[in-house]
Amino acid sequence: MSLNIDQLAEQIVTLDQTKQMALLEKVAELNFQHGLVDLSQMYRKRLEKEGRLTQTASEIMAQLGQIREETAAHDPVL
Protein backbone atom coordinates (compact mmCIF):
# COMPACT_ATOMS: atom_id res chain seq x y z
CA MET A 1 0.00 0.00 0.00
CA SER A 2 1.48 3.32 -1.00
CA LEU A 3 -0.21 5.45 1.69
CA ASN A 4 0.66 5.10 5.33
CA ILE A 5 -1.93 5.18 8.11
CA ASP A 6 -1.44 8.88 8.86
CA GLN A 7 -1.90 9.81 5.20
CA LEU A 8 -5.04 7.70 5.00
CA ALA A 9 -6.40 9.33 8.14
CA GLU A 10 -5.72 12.78 6.71
CA GLN A 11 -7.68 11.87 3.58
CA ILE A 12 -10.54 10.36 5.56
CA VAL A 13 -11.03 13.45 7.73
CA THR A 14 -11.50 15.54 4.59
CA LEU A 15 -14.59 13.46 3.71
CA ASP A 16 -17.99 14.61 4.87
CA GLN A 17 -19.61 12.71 7.76
CA THR A 18 -21.83 10.61 5.48
CA LYS A 19 -18.90 9.39 3.41
CA GLN A 20 -16.87 8.68 6.55
CA MET A 21 -19.71 6.54 7.92
CA ALA A 22 -20.05 4.73 4.58
CA LEU A 23 -16.32 4.07 4.62
CA LEU A 24 -16.43 2.68 8.16
CA GLU A 25 -19.35 0.43 7.23
CA LYS A 26 -17.44 -0.83 4.19
CA VAL A 27 -14.34 -1.52 6.29
CA ALA A 28 -16.47 -3.44 8.82
CA GLU A 29 -18.09 -5.43 6.00
CA LEU A 30 -14.72 -6.30 4.46
CA ASN A 31 -13.32 -7.30 7.86
CA PHE A 32 -16.34 -9.56 8.40
CA GLN A 33 -15.89 -11.17 4.97
CA HIS A 34 -12.18 -11.72 5.58
CA GLY A 35 -13.00 -13.25 8.95
CA LEU A 36 -15.42 -15.66 7.31
CA VAL A 37 -12.79 -16.67 4.76
CA ASP A 38 -10.24 -17.23 7.53
CA LEU A 39 -12.75 -19.26 9.56
CA SER A 40 -13.63 -21.34 6.51
CA GLN A 41 -9.97 -22.08 5.83
CA MET A 42 -9.39 -23.10 9.46
CA TYR A 43 -12.45 -25.35 9.39
CA ARG A 44 -11.36 -26.98 6.12
CA LYS A 45 -7.90 -27.64 7.57
CA ARG A 46 -9.47 -29.22 10.64
CA LEU A 47 -11.77 -31.40 8.55
CA GLU A 48 -8.84 -32.46 6.37
CA LYS A 49 -6.76 -33.30 9.45
CA GLU A 50 -9.67 -35.39 10.79
CA GLY A 51 -10.16 -37.08 7.42
CA ARG A 52 -13.65 -35.62 7.04
CA LEU A 53 -13.08 -33.08 4.26
CA THR A 54 -14.90 -35.21 1.69
CA GLN A 55 -18.02 -35.66 3.83
CA THR A 56 -21.25 -34.39 2.33
CA ALA A 57 -23.26 -31.64 3.98
CA SER A 58 -26.03 -34.12 4.82
CA GLU A 59 -23.53 -36.43 6.55
CA ILE A 60 -22.23 -33.54 8.63
CA MET A 61 -25.76 -32.41 9.48
CA ALA A 62 -26.66 -35.96 10.55
CA GLN A 63 -23.64 -36.04 12.86
CA LEU A 64 -24.55 -32.66 14.31
CA GLY A 65 -28.10 -33.89 14.91
CA GLN A 66 -26.75 -36.94 16.73
CA ILE A 67 -24.50 -34.75 18.90
CA ARG A 68 -27.44 -32.47 19.68
CA GLU A 69 -29.59 -35.45 20.71
CA GLU A 70 -26.83 -36.89 22.88
CA THR A 71 -26.29 -33.52 24.54
CA ALA A 72 -30.01 -33.07 25.18
CA ALA A 73 -30.26 -36.57 26.65
CA HIS A 74 -27.57 -35.71 29.21
CA ASP A 75 -28.78 -32.20 30.04
CA PRO A 76 -30.79 -32.22 33.27
CA VAL A 77 -32.53 -28.94 32.36
CA LEU A 78 -34.03 -30.36 29.18
Notes on the protein architecture:
The chain is mainly α and 78 residues long. The protein has 3 helices and no strands. The relative contact order is 0.05. The mean pLDDT is 93.
The gist of it:
The chain has one domain (about 5-75).
Q: Name the shape in a single word.
A: elongated
Tally of individual helices: 3
Spans of at least 5 consecutive residues whose pLDDT stays below 50 are none
Instruction: Quote the average pLDDT.
Output: 93
What structural class is derived from the secondary structure elements?
Answer: mainly alpha
Number of E strands:
0
Tell me what portion of residues adopts beta-strand conformation.
under 5%
CA radius of gyration is 22 Å
Order of helices and strands: HHH
Fold topology:
Blueprint: H1 5-13, H2 17-49, H3 57-74
Question: What attributes does this structure have?
Answer:
3 helices, mainly alpha, elongated
